[in-house]
Amino acid sequence: MEYKFRKASHEDLSHIWEILEQAIKRRKHDGSGQWQDGYPNFAVVQNDIDNGTGYVLADEMTIVAYCAIMVNDEPAYATIEGKWLTDGDFVVYHRVAVSEKYLGRGLAHKLLEHIHGFALQHGIRSVRADTNYDNPAMLKLFEKMGYRYCGEVMFRGTPRKAFEKVLTA
User: Fold this and answer.
1) Which neighbouring-strand residues pair with 34?
2) Whole-prediction pTM value?
3) In the prediction, which pLDDT does 61 show?
4) Is 14 helix (H, G, I), strand (E, B) or coil?
């Protein structure tokens, strides 16, 4: 199956929000506190699209996954209890979610590969991300894809595990 990675549009908003709502419910069902405090919400996704930072993975016309990608734009990463691997430019991504109908097909892995490609296309070799301590699926994905644990960052008063991957061409 060939999936297309592209910038999200306003027409995609309801489909993206449906995917995120599913992911929020899955996190709750798994007993996680992540995404159980009203974040992310519809306005956050709308802001991603308005700012040109929302991206989707699509199967033909069906959106199967979503994430937000920013360059050098994560204030919480300025204060890390630990140390980043690099000091230069970095790509950061948030709000990674895969449609419930497409779970188990390796699409989160594929989405991260596209994020890595995005970074390299912009001449950036550092990719950073974080997740809750109680998100085993994302922690496993980071490990599988060669991310290194760098320390802890705080989001909305909650500690998060921070990771970085240094890309090679």
Assistant:
1) none
2) 0.95
3) 86
4) helix
